[in-house]
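Technical annex, item 7. During the second reporting period the consortium partners agreed on a shared format for inverse folding records so that results from different sites could be compared directly. Each record opens with the tokenized structure and is followed by the designed sequence. A conforming record, contributed by the partner at site C, is shown below for reference.
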């Protein structure tokens, strides 16, 4: 079978450590082209991962003989690059948040439908083993009725990981549009929707820029969320935590389910009868050493293309998770609860 020919737009850290590394490990993929406005960076990644072509303009890359394109650019370019690739007949895997507005998300979805190509959004938390186990248990009714939840994603900030450090686009509103909520919070809105199997109907939020002197986007946010069946909970996203927190806790009728909240066990179920179940299912993906090696995102994208099946996180799913974050911004501005 001929290998899928892939191009990657954006050669920063997410491309280097996730997309390119995982494409290179997939036997069904050939990395053909890499694009970055920093030509030296594009050539460096091309040499490292064996790509024959480099570009500084994404419009040139999407014209090439490619099957698929990964979009690893600053957030404001997600929609235009994705749409250009789809219109050029390529399948697209776009980093999160998928867009900077609901209209942009709709335009991306429409472009995919018109082209007859797949659009996937890179929400990797659905592929974490502990999260999949939680979804399985909750769907089976094993824990009874769910009453509440709390979920958080925080770390010291992107300057320690981004290719441009403290000068990164992550801190610039005109390029990032949104800060910690778009970098981390949207992962958790997607995760909670996935685990609970419900949509969020209301959001109230407090959003601040308090930890980063060089930022004009949010670096701390706390959301209160309500689902369609009345489950309420909190979501925190932050670039101010000195140690990473990527934990989710579900409070249910028959127990408390702790995910990635214990240093030894990825799943801890504290049952109502006083007993406890503990599972070690591997580490969650992290920028720190010892984290998950493969996100599962790239392999799922490739499998979706080869099978012709819609990916788990298609454009519509990405849009639903984005809408919660957009609602949080609106709530913070209006100081009102926002109906989604």
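Designed sequence (site C submission):
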């Amino acid at each position: 079978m001929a290998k899928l020919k892939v191009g990657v737009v954006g050669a920063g850290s997410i491309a280097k450590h996730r997309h390119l590394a995982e494409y290179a490990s997939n036997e069904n993929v050939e990395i053909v082209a890499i694009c970055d406005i920093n030509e030296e960076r594009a050539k460096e990644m091309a040499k490292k991962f064996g790509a024959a072509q480099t570009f500084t303009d994404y419009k040139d890359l999407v014209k090439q003989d490619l099957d698929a394109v990964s979009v690893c650019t600053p957030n404001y370019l997600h929609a235009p690059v994705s749409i250009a690739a789809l219109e050029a007949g390529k399948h697209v895997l776009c980093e999160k948040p998928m867009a900077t507005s609901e209209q942009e998300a709709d335009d991306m979805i429409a472009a995919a439908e018109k082209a007859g190509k797949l659009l996937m959004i890179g929400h990797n938390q659905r592929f974490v083993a502990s999260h999949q186990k939680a979804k399985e248990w909750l769907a089976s009714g094993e824990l009874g009725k769910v009453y509440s939840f709390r979920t958080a994603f925080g770390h010291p900030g992107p300057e320690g990981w981004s290719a441009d450090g403290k000068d990164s686009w992550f801190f610039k509103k005109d390029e990032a549009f949104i800060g910690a909520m778009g970098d981390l919070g949207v992962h958790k809105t997607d995760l909670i929707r996935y685990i609970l199997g419900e949509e969020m109907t209301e959001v109230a939020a407090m959003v601040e820029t308090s930890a980063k002197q060089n930022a004009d986007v949010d670096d701390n946010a706390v959301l209160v969320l309500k689902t369609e069946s009345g489950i309420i909970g909190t979501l925190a996203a932050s670039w101010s935590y000195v140690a990473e927190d990527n934990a989710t806790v579900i409070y249910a009728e028959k127990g408390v389910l702790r995910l990635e909240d214990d240093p030894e066990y990825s799943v801890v179920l504290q049952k109502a009868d006083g007993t406890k179940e503990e599972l070690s299912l591997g580490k969650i993906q992290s920028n720190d050493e010892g984290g998950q090696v493969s996100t599962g995102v790239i392999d799922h994208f490739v499998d979706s293309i080869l099978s012709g099946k819609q990916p788990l996180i298609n454009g519509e799913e990405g849009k639903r998770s984005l809408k919660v974050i957009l609602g949080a911004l609106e709530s913070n501005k209006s100081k009102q609860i926002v109906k989604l």
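The first strand starts at residue 4 and ends at 9. DSSP finds ten helices and 15 strands in the chain. All partners now use this format for quarterly exchanges.
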